[in-house]
Amino acid sequence: MAQSNPLRIGTRGSRLALFQAELVRAALSRTGRNCEILAIKTTGDRIQDRPLADAGGKGLFTKELEEALLRNEIDLAVHSMKDVPTALPSGLMIGAILQREDPRDAFVSQKAESLTGLASGARVGTSSVRRTAQVLRERPDLQTGLLRGNVETRLRKLDAGEVDAVILAVAGLKRLALEGRVTKLLDPASWLPALGQGAIGIEIREADAGVRNALAPIDHAQTAHELACERAFQAALDGSCRTPIGGLARVAGARLSFRGEVLSPDGKESVPTSFECALRSSDPRADAERAGREAGLELRPKVLGWLA
């Protein structure tokens, strides 16, 4: 691709998605590449009346963007990595991952300072099976209900009294300058986030060496290694939107640590796992992927009854 041709960035049309695409555009601009942003509405954006798990799962937020890539209508697609299935369509790959934002979840409410402070029977809105299971594990007396829509829509429903509390990703709140709405940050030691949460990934065509080379300077190695571990863990478990799975990998120097868990949908049971390992300088990403896969395969026989 000629240097003068702008790279076409495909993204969902929400304010958060457009902000994330702008982060990619700005990063590429600093390397001297011109870009334009094209908004594409996905099936996941259109479905508001039922859980995504009932409509097909994670791929609902990526399908139309991937089809645009394969039709050569865009050169790269920007995703929240927690929404990206572990198996990509033939001919596509993740070309780069930006530095991760805070991966934690946040409790947001005007009724209480934490889940423990909510009155019995209070309504917690979420569309996530993981968050639902985690809420019920901590407070089985609470009600959990479907809450779809973008971050701003969920906060409006909270303010309107449709629910008493919501659980949201800290990364999204920060990117929208809404971190002031956080009532309590949820510690990953007891509340693991979604796999890939807080990370922005860039999907491209495998055969497009020009775009792949253009992305190389903005690929954040530490985050990429963490995501390689988390996504391999999820793939080994065959995790989907129907399975409550949480996990978080951390890379410090040449060491990788990981904590993960699978929960029963009602939150009454969970099976955790954790490990720490060294990453070889020759291929640290492969080491991280291998370690995550092995952890998932070891856990899989113990949770088969919960996997969708």
Topology:
Elements: E1 7-11, H1 15-29, E2 35-39, H2 43-46, H3 63-70, E3 76-80, E4 92-97, E5 105-109, E6 123-125, H4 129-138, E7 143-145, H5 151-159, E8 165-169, H6 170-175, E9 184-185, E10 200-205, H7 209-215, H8 221-237, E11 245-252, E12 255-263, E13 270-278, H9 284-299
Helix pairs in contact: 8-9
Descriptive keywords:
5-stranded mixed sheet, alpha/beta, 308 residues, D-Maltodextrin-Binding Protein, domain 2, Double Stranded RNA Binding Domain
Q: What's the average pLDDT?
A: 92
The CATH class name of the largest domain reads Alpha Beta
Helical segment tally?
A: 9
Secondary-structure content class: alpha/beta
Which CATH architecture of the largest domain?
Answer: 3-Layer(aba) Sandwich
Number of strands: 13
Fold-level CATH name of the largest domain: D-Maltodextrin-Binding Protein, domain 2
Shape: globular
Portion in helices: 25-40%
Q: So what's the oligomer here? A: single chain
Low-confidence stretches: 47-51
Question: What profile does the largest beta sheet have?
Answer: 5 strands, mixed
Task: Explain what you see.
With 308 residues, the chain is of the alpha/beta class. It folds into 3 domains: 1-99 and 199-219, Periplasmic binding protein-like II (D-Maltodextrin-Binding Protein, domain 2); 105-185, Periplasmic binding protein-like II (D-Maltodextrin-Binding Protein, domain 2, 3-Layer(aba) Sandwich), CATH 3.40.190.10; 220-300, Double Stranded RNA Binding Domain, CATH 3.30.160. The chain is built from 9 helices and 13 strands. It has helices spanning 15-29, 43-46, 63-70, 129-138, 151-159, 170-175, 209-215, 221-237, 284-299; strands at residues 7-11, 35-39, 76-80, 92-97, 105-109, 123-125, 143-145, 165-169, 184-185, 200-205, 245-252, 255-263, 270-278. The strands form 3 sheets. Strands 2-1-3-10-4 form a 5-stranded mixed beta sheet, with helices on both faces. Helix 8 packs parallel to helix 9. The termini are far apart. Residues 47-51 have low confidence and may be disordered.
